[in-house]
Please model this.
Amino acid sequence: MAPTHVLRCCQRGLAWIPVIFIALVVCWSYYAYVVELCLFVYLAVFHVSFIMFVWSYWKTIFTRPSTPSKEFCLPKSEKEQYEKEQRPETQQEILKRVATSLPLYTRTGAGAIRYCDRCQVIKPDRCHHCSACDMCVLKMDHHCPWVNNCVGFSNYKFFILFLTYSLVYCLFIAASVLQYFIKFWTSDLPESHAKFHVLFLFFVAAMFCISILSLFTYHLWLVGKNRSTIEAFRAPVFRNGPDKNGFSLGFSKNIAQVFGDQKLYWLLPVFTSQGDGFSFPTRLVTVDPEQPTDCLQPGGLDKGAVEVSAEQTTPLSESQNRLLGNDYHIEEDHKETDILKSDESEAITISIESES
Model:
């Protein structure tokens, strides 16, 4: 049997086949459009879309996925205790002691601290282990074979722009070649070897356009909801239960989470996403100013939502303070009554039993 590392090298080599295929198709499309058809009127627009498409594709492929920092690794003494301990209950107690200083709000389906035995790190919120990359990836969305890379916090914006510009590229080619494609079938196109390129340019552009359009629409929907592909199929579990909208802050803020605050850079494949990838604002601990005030009524709160108070009543760690805003903090008393003021300065009293 071949050594494991040889098989691993073979797998990594084969993983580049889809990327090489896309690169060859793009190179051929450039040759067919610029050299064979030579449509001078459209070349300026064509080159702009081509450059942005290649730029965003390159960034998606070669941007290394972000991984958990050393802050999420177990200290040496706790790690030794964890490895020696056989009982899952005791292992969870060890993880809980370490996790008290970390900005963690999500749990496993059973309510336990999320820990990766392979990477030996406590998983930050929205972090998952990728078996293809063999690493834990911050805010992992999915592993894409067409870019031979994990799509996550560090390159999700690049991936969205890659879909955007590839769709624009295919649409532009299909639209500008359509008239020559019609002439081909009506025998009005002069006999030349360019007829082959006209035929296949249209078919390839139309085929990729249809497939990309569905994926592009789906990911735009995910961005608007502030969900990853994984979270769309399996809702994140918070301390008081699963909530598929737990990270949704309102449409405009959800967009800013991926593209940033400066709209000037939204269409450029440069990193502008908000946050550090380790902690994320969540509607469970942050009041959304875009939400109507009636959602703060007891009947409008989702089951398992954590209460928010206007004044801090319990000390928070530095990492938790990074996640929470300056205006709102969690109260972790057994039972508290919070008074929130609406825009009309009317006092609304909400009684919620928090996690014990």
About this structure: The first helix runs from residue 4 to 14. The chain has ten helices and 13 strands. The radius of gyration is 25 Å. The CA atoms of residues 246 and 282 lie 6 Å apart.
